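Long-time lurker, finally posting.

We've been working with Pyruvate phosphate dikinase (Staphylococcus gallinarum) and I want a structural starting point before designing mutants. I don't trust myself to interpret raw outputs, so I'm hoping someone here can both generate the C-alpha cells and explain anything notable. Sequence follows.
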Amino acid sequence: MPGMMDTILNLGLNDENVLTLARKTDDARFAYDCYRRLLQMFGEVVYDIPMASFDTYFEQYKAQHGYQNDADIPAEGLQEICDYYKDVYLDEANKPFPQEPTQQLTEAIEAVFKSWDNHRARVYRNLNDIPHDIGTAVNIQEMVFGNSGARSGTGVAFTRNPVTGEAKLFGEYLLNAQGEDVVAGIRTPLDINVLKEQMPEVHQQFVEVSQKIRNALQRYARY
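Top reply, 14 upvotes:
Generated this for you. Predicted structure of Pyruvate phosphate dikinase:
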C-alpha cells in the first residue's frame, strides 16, 4: 500500500551523532537538515504532535530571515530550528525527543505497525478489496540521503506508464531533497525526462535498469 502507511526517515540521529555526521560529511547544513526532518516526522508519526506545530515555526523562520526556499537556510538556522522542535516535544507531548537510537527504532516500529489502521490505509484497502486482517510488516533499511547536494535526489519512477501501460520510463524527481518533499508538495518535482538534460549518464543508467526489470518481469505484466 504505497504511501498509505507511515514512514520515518533519518532515524537514529541525536544531539551527539549529528555532530559526527556533520564532521564526516564536512557538511553541517546537510546534517542538521536531516536532524530537523527526523524531529518533525518522528514527532508527528510517533507522538501525534500536529505537523502544524513544526511547519508554522519553520515557515515563520524562513519569512523572518528572507529565505525563499528550504535549501536557503544555513546550518546555523537549521540548528536553531532543531532546538525549537525539541521544545515542541516538551510542550505538545510532555516528554523529550528520545536521544537513544534504540528507543527511537522501537517506538518507530510500533508506530508504523499502528498506521495499518489509520484512515487512509483503511480507505485504500476498501477500494482495492484488501482484507483488513492480514496485517503488515515493517521495513527497516539504511538511509540513502537524497538531500546531500545537487548530485543527489529523490523521486518516484515506474518501468511502465501506470495509466497506458506503455513500456517507457515514467516518473518524477527532485534534486537535493528527501521523499516527503515529493509527496507533500513542498517543491514541484521534475519529469524524469528532464534528468536526461541534468545528468545524462544517470538517466541512461536508469533507462537500462528499467529495461532489465521489464524484461525480467514481463510475464507478470498485464496491460
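Before you design anything, note these points.
The mean pLDDT is 92.
The domain at 153-221 is CATH 3.30.470.20 (D-amino Acid Aminotransferase; Chain A, domain 1).
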